[in-house]
Amino acid sequence: MYHHTHLHTTSTSHTLESFDSPPSSVVVSDGLGPGLVVDLTSLNVKQGQTRSIVGMRKMQNYTPSEPPLEYSGEGGIPEPPYPSYPLLDSTLFLANAELNPSLTTSTNRVRMVNAGAGDTLIVRVDGDHLVVGRDGVLFPGHPRKDPGGKYVLEPGSRLDLFIFSPNATFYSDCGSGIDLNWLGAKTDVNCWSGGRFSPSHGSGYPLFTVSTSMTQASLISSLSLLKSSPLSKYTNPSYYHPSQSLLSLPPLNTSTFTYYTSPTKLSSPPSLVPSSLYGFNGVPYDGKAHPETTVCLGEVYEWEVVNPTSVGHPFHMHTNHFQIAGVTCGSPQGEECDTKQSYEVGDWRDTVMVPSPGSLRIRFRPLEFEGDSFAHCHIFGHEDRGMAVKVKIVDGC
Ligand SMILES: [Cu+2]
């Protein structure tokens, strides 16, 4: 069994279940205290079913067990008619399984989780705020704020922030002010519509509103506290091991993993919709041990994740967070690109978009956990069709 919360090829069905249950995510205890968790899940409105289920129907050699292949709208999914937001022929994100809910909290900390199966979300925060971390880990320096309040939330990724207004509204936004190119021209980004990006959707549609019961004085002191000191004075969660940057170390162990998409569409078994196979280094993951890579506890690794495809693929690694060492756009030897609305060199993450085309350099050092782990594209329709690699973590190399 991999160090994985569910069996390989069942990601899409597990995502579906999140519609029927309250958000299971928690803010892991750290020095910044508890907060409100908002679980964002995508819904294909036009067809009345989720994209994830559409993806499951395309899977090769998939034998359905309990999960339904068609979603009828029962359970937590709001019934149509849906509000007249733009993009209703594409993807609509629900917040805690509701459309545009008003959420209240006694704190001012908010964690957003993109729990969708494959769509990248661009969030715009309307309200005074500071972002303190991503993927459950605080930034290495100070809190940040994008001038337009826009942040890229890859599927599986998390965004931690504080609000300093009594009310803040969060939007799905694909408007101007963000460089969409690095996300991939054909990526399942929420502003993807009609065969190309559509930046004309302006302010987008509201995802949710947060109201805090904190007093104005408390909000002001919370703001000055966060602004006045680096986040390193706070304690990161226990799963975050590295206490120092790995970027100044010599890269002793280097590997390259190149995203792969089969050039020909496969249509076996014939009842399924023809689709490509996905993989790394030319090989779709076989569900067992191929492709596989071995890493040793305590060693520092540098991986280059290359994306020659025309789709942006979010790279996700289990067990150990990785540090961003570099990113290029246009080609593996391309130019620096502006990914700061998701990540910067030096950040610790576990899910980030690899530009299309482009490459991402990461460093990590496995500590503590010994056993089988996993790295994969976090678009589940790709992962479930083979875009994954088994990572064997061993002691005593
Ligand atoms: Cu992918």
Automatic annotation (TrEMBL):
Protein name as annotated: Plastocyanin-like domain-containing protein
Chain residue ranges for the region called Disordered: 1-25
Pfam families membership: Cu-oxidase_2 (PF07731)
Gene Ontology MF term list: copper ion binding; oxidoreductase activity
Keywords: Metal-binding
SUPFAM superfamilies, A to Z: Cupredoxins
Originating species: Triparma columacea
PANTHER family per record: MULTI-COPPER OXIDASE (PTHR11709), MULTICOPPER OXIDASE LPR1 (PTHR11709:SF2)
Plastocyanin-like domain residues: 274-393
UniProt feature, compositional bias: Low complexity: 8-25
InterPro entries in the cross-refs: Cu-oxidase_C (IPR011706), Cu-oxidase_fam (IPR045087), Cu_oxidase_Cu_BS (IPR002355), Cupredoxin (IPR008972)
